[in-house]
Amino acid sequence: MGETTHSLSDKRYRSISDSVYKIVTLALCSMSFVFIIILLIVLFHASLASIVVNGLRFFTTTTWNPAINSKVISVDGFSAMWGANYGMLVFFVGTLGSSILALLVGVPVGVGIALFISEFGPKRLDGPITLLLQLMAGIPSVIFGFWGILILSPWIRKFFAPALGKYLFFIPIFSGQVYSSGFLSSGFILALMIIPIIASISRDAMAQTPVLLKEGGRALGLTDWEISRKIVIPYARQGIIGGSILGLGRALGETMAVALVCGGADFLPKTMFYPINTLSAFIVTSLDSAFTDPSGMYVAALGELALVLLAITMIVNISARLLVSKGFLSNPENVVQV
After folding, report:
1. What is the tens place of the pLDDT at every residue in 35-45?
2. 105: closest CA among 212, 172, 190?
3. Whose CB has fewer CB within 10 Å in the chain, the N or C terminal residue?
4. Neighbour tally for 40: CB within 10 Å
5. 179, exposed or middle or buried, with CB in 10 Å at 0-12, 13-18, 19+?
6. Which of the pair, 184 or 74, is modelled with greater confidence?
7. 194-217 confidence digits (pLDDT tens)
8. Which helix (H) or strand (E) holds 73?
9. Under a CB-based contact definition with an 8 Å cutoff, are residues 110 and 245 in contact?
10. What values do phi and psi take at 302, rounded to 5?
11. Mean pLDDT of 91-113
């Protein structure tokens, strides 16, 4: 009888502990979702005045003039400065342009590194190269920006940009006078920062390629390069795309490195030889002056920029996660037939 009572008591205790464990883990798992919701609510509330007053003009115009020294007026029930205009197009174009340039440089390099590690390089180099990628991914962005100011930007301005203009002048984006290295420097700095992400995920995706497929390719007389091009890369395609989109998410939100080299432009670039500005870089460099606006509209407009950037980053990262998860489960039907 005593043993039966003890057994029932033990089962009841385990049931209660399991229930508590489930509740605690559920609460911990939901914290990230709750935090994102709270962040969206806070940003929306902070930018509500800008959303109402500026409307669609915020997304379609290039003028950013807070007019801090003018008088405060009321517009649609919110305080604003007389003559103030807020348009994010310059910063959106700068963000998009620098991120695309980073992908154009970073994806081929990252995939090439992944191919070397997984297919061509000696196995003894896998560890050192992986360690270098991890170290590179851990370098603070301000260090990249400082290196860009001291080394990269002067080199681009003096040598690389003039060479592009000399030999590729027939392409509109490489024509004209070199006014700044901001566009190119931003793109190259971002490329350096996303290469470890692309290389790591691409390598993991390529490692999922079945050995039998590669051995079958060799049996058909394919070279190592043909096996990589016709079997490995197609099999890892979704993982490579997912890694590239994750890299894009990093590039879109990068702040300090870009703020140091972009040039801080307030106009649209006509060629690659112009300065630019990005959403995140402009936000961080404008906070001091924004709080001097007596109407608070400047802060609200920066909040709307942050809300737009958060929405873009969330969409990009969710897409990347979906692609990466499918990339590790690629089917043999996705492989190019040889």
Report:
1. 888 989 999 99
2. 190
3. N
4. 14
5. middle
6. 184
7. 999 999 999 988 888 888 888 888
8. strand 72-75
9. no
10. -65, -35
11. 95
Residue with tokens 């040889």: 338
- Quote the CA–CA distance of 144 and 257 in Å, as a whole number: 6
| pLDDT tens, residue by residue, 111-164 | 999 999 888 878 888 888 888 888 888 889 999 999 999 999 999 999 999 999
Q: Indicate the residue type of 100.
A: I
Q: How many residues does the chain have?
A: 338
The rounded distance, in Å, linking the Cα atoms of 66 and 62 is 13
Residue identified by tokens 């890299």 is 247
CB 94 within 8 Å of CB 305 = no
Separation between Cα atoms, residue 258 and residue 144, nearest integer Å: 9
Residue whose tokens read 């400082």: 146
User: Which residue from 260, 257, 272 is spatially nearest to 189, judged by alpha carbons?
Assistant: 257
Determine the Cα–Cα distance for residues 53 and 325; give it in Å rounded to an integer.
Answer: 42
Residues 205/240, Cβ–Cβ less than 8 Å: yes
- The dihedrals phi and psi of 266, each to the nearest 5 degrees, come to -120, 25
Q: Say which amino acid occupies 289.
A: S
Element (H, E) at 144: helix 141-147
Stated as kind and residue range, the H or E segment containing 32 is helix 2-54
Amino acid type, 275: P
Sign of CA dihedral 320, 325, 329, 333: negative
Residue 11 to residues 3, 18, 25, 133, Cα–Cα distance (Å): 12, 10, 21, 50
The DSSP call for residue 274 is S
